[in-house]
Structure formats: C-alpha cells, structure tokens
Amino acid sequence: MHTQEWERTTGFIRTASGFPQLHAQLARNALQFSSRAQATRSPASPGGKRAVPANMFRNATGRNATSSTVSTDNFSLANDAIVPVYDARNVASLDLEEVLPRLSQVLPIYTGGEIPYGSFVTVGYTMTIYRSNSGMWTLGCNVLWIIVLGIPPTA
C-alpha cells in the first residue's frame, strides 16, 4: 500500500475493530501480507482460551487449503500453500460479483512467471487481529489470491 492508503486503512481497521492501538508487520514502509503462520501455541483471546471449530479453516467443498480452487469462505491459506495467481489481462469485462465466488473456474492461472514490477493487480486477503507473543494486539493480513489485471509493456 502507498503511505496515504496505509493511513486510511489503519483508521478504518481501528474504527471497525474497536482496537485503539494495533501493531502490524511492516517492512520498507509497507504492510506485509502473508499466508497463515505455522503456529505451535494456542492463540490468546481477550476472554481466555476459546474452542476453535473443527471445520473453521475448511472450504465448502471439503478440500484442503492447498487446493488450486479458492473458495470465498477460506480464512487463510496454509503456510506451505502456493498462492493462486489468476490472469485477467484478456478479459473484456470483469464483473467481480460474478467472478470472485468462482475464480478458478472463470479465470486462467497466470503463467508468466514472476509478476513484473509495475503491474496492476488485485489482491484478495482476510484480516485477523491476534495477541502476539509480546502481548500486543497485532493485525495480520492473510493473502488468499491475486488477479493480474495488467503488466507494463516490455522494453
């Protein structure tokens, strides 16, 4: 995110979540997005430990998180999952309401290797707020998928 986008996003997240202070993973003046961390400890919550439903991270089709099919009810990808990157550069009209629920059926996988610097992309992600090991409330952004909308012309 650009600096001004970060400030607006931070304000929105703090207002929507009710947390007056949040920490986040920042590097080079940018918010970091990642897949789900591999955790070995139980998460802490304001009211103590909570039971996590057995199917909380399972998508509607019952496939595991590393499936190439992305479902809209996935909370985050596994730490070893490959983030699906879809190619919408040759789509005449992209109706996100129609496309998002079935990305893998509508858009082809991007096969151009690393996405070039300066490309125009849309990133689908979820946000979590958790208590870090140091006890601070922390924002995590969990990337789910990427849609490539445009890449710069080659030199």
| Outline type | elongated
Biggest sheet details: 5 strands, mixed
User: What share of the residues does DSSP label as strand, in percent?
Assistant: 15-25%
Instruction: Tally the structural domains.
Output: 1
Q: Strand tally, please?
A: 7
Radius of gyration equals 17 Å
Helical element count?
3
Distance between the termini: 26 Å
Quick check: average pLDDT?
74
Can you walk me through this structure?
The protein has 155 residues and is an alpha/beta fold. It has one domain. The chain is 15% helix and 24% strand. Strands 1, 4, 5, 6 and 7 form a five-stranded mixed sheet that branches. The protein has a two-stranded antiparallel sheet with strand order 2-3. Strand 6 (120-131) and strand 7 form a beta hairpin. The longest helix has 15 residues, at 3-17.
Write the layout of secondary structure elements.
Layout: H1 3-17, E1 23-24, E2 26-27, E3 30-31, E4 33-34, E5 85-87, H2 96-99, H3 103-106, E6 120-131, E7 137-150
Parallel strand pairs: 1-7, 4-7, 5-7
Antiparallel strand pairs: 2-3, 6-7
